Amino acid sequence: MKIKLSNVRSGDTERRSILIENGKIGEIYFDNRQVAFDEVYDLSELTLYGGFIDIHIHGAVGVDTNEAAPEDFYKMAKFLAENGVTAWMPTFVPDSDENYRKGIAAIEELMKIQANEPIAQAVGVHYEGIFANEKMCGALRPQYFKTLKNGDEIAQIPRLKNGAHLTTLAPEVENGIETIKKLISENWIVSIGHTKAETGILDSAFEAGAKHLTHFYNAMTGLHHRDVGVVGWALTNENVTFDIIADGIHVHPKMLKFAAETKTPGKVSLISDSVLPTGLGDGDFQIWGENISVVSGKTRNERGSIAGSVITMLDAVKMMLKLGFSPEDVSKMASANPAKLLGLENERGSVEAGKRADLVALDADGNVKLTIIGGKVAFNDL
Fold first, then answer.
1. Residues 353, 110, 347: CA angle, nearest 5 degrees
2. For the chain, what is the radius of gyration of the CA atoms?
3. Are 110 and 74 in contact (CB under 8 A)?
4. How far apart are CA 173 and CA 217, in angstroms?
């Protein structure tokens, strides 16, 4: 199928046309040549972005990734597509090895189904907090934390046949630096999080290959003028990147703006960190073996901790646009940077000829009007 997007604005004010064919972005041109198309969409009042990529998401619309069957993941992927997400990393909180195996099997089945479906594409898996600091556990369950002792703990973590493998860990845990080295040697992407590591340990973690931080500010030591903390270390190391929950609850909007401006939008990724109630409104829910309440869009577990968010990547994008970031910078944070972190930048993350046709068009209020995934229309509200 050939699709033409006309009057496209992406990255500048000049209007152009985009040819989509065989699932990829073809020509991007300025003239009005007469070419036969199966479908034409006029984006004259819209802004086109690379499809959003959510690297940290625990659930939505009643689905919990730790408990999801393939059909549950499909339901989530459809919801995500409606909200501009074209690729995602199902994210597990610490759990039993048996549940990990079930979850990986379900993702594998989803990957078979999604290949020919215009739904948000699972591109890997994110294990959050298998190796974490119990004192910084947040909503995670420390009874399932692991430590590297005999060397084969990492090999025992269930893996996908294909896809990216990301894990969030605290480098100060027992044998933490060796754990990072082992993970990197086995092609894992390592992100620092749920940590109170001192600067020296963070430097060692960076040298070992951990160059990204998970949900910046949250579940890590903050910035103080006499104590750099994890936050200060990240802001002062120009080669470190991080992701951040832009819901205005996990991080105050002023601090969101400060972090993104200080680090620069080229080194910040937006995440949802969303959980099961996302898309369902306020109420009481059972997640991860405990009761979680959602009141005015804020989650809280029985221990009084924030237990993930109930936003989508679209909400995060709207927040950053509201804070004054340009569509070009927001596109980096929502699309290009996550793609680069996962090693998918040659395939996804921007509106460029030759890349997958994973695209989302937003109106002036930041609402999704069109989502295209793999060259197929996933959502149309034009």
1. 15
2. 20
3. yes
4. 19
> What is the phi/psi pair of residue 228, to 5°?
-55, -40
- Could you tell me if 166 and 125 are in contact, meaning their C-beta atoms sit under 8 angstroms apart? yes
Q: List beta partners, residue 341.
A: none
Say how many Å lie between the first and final Cα of the chain, rounded. Answer: 19
| pLDDT for 322 beyond 90 | yes
**Assigned token pair, 331:** 């596109």
Q: Residue 210 domain-assigned?
A: yes
Q: Is 38 a catalytic residue?
A: no
Asked, for residue 380, whether it belongs to a domain, the answer is: no
At 176 the three-state DSSP class reads helix
Full domain range(s) for residue 62? 50-349
Q: How far apart are CA 340 and CA 344, in angstroms?
A: 6
DSSP string, 236-254: H-TT-EEEEE-SSSSS-HH
Region of residue 43 (left: phi > 0; alpha: psi -120 to 50; beta: else): alpha
CATH classification at residue 251: 3.20.20.140
The two tokens of residue 75 are: 């339901």
- Residues 338-369: tens digit of each pLDDT: 999 999 999 999 999 999 999 999 999 999 99
Choosing from 95, 243, 273, 329, the catalytic residue is 273
Structure token digits, residue 336: 């290009």
- When divided into structural domains, the chain yields a total of 1
Q: How far apart are CA 167 and CA 126, in angstroms?
A: 5
Residue 194 resides in a domain: yes
Rounded to two decimals, the pTM is: 0.95
Q: Which two tokens stand for residue 119?
A: 């739904």
- For 219-243, the pLDDT digits (tens) are 999 988 888 999 999 999 999 999 9
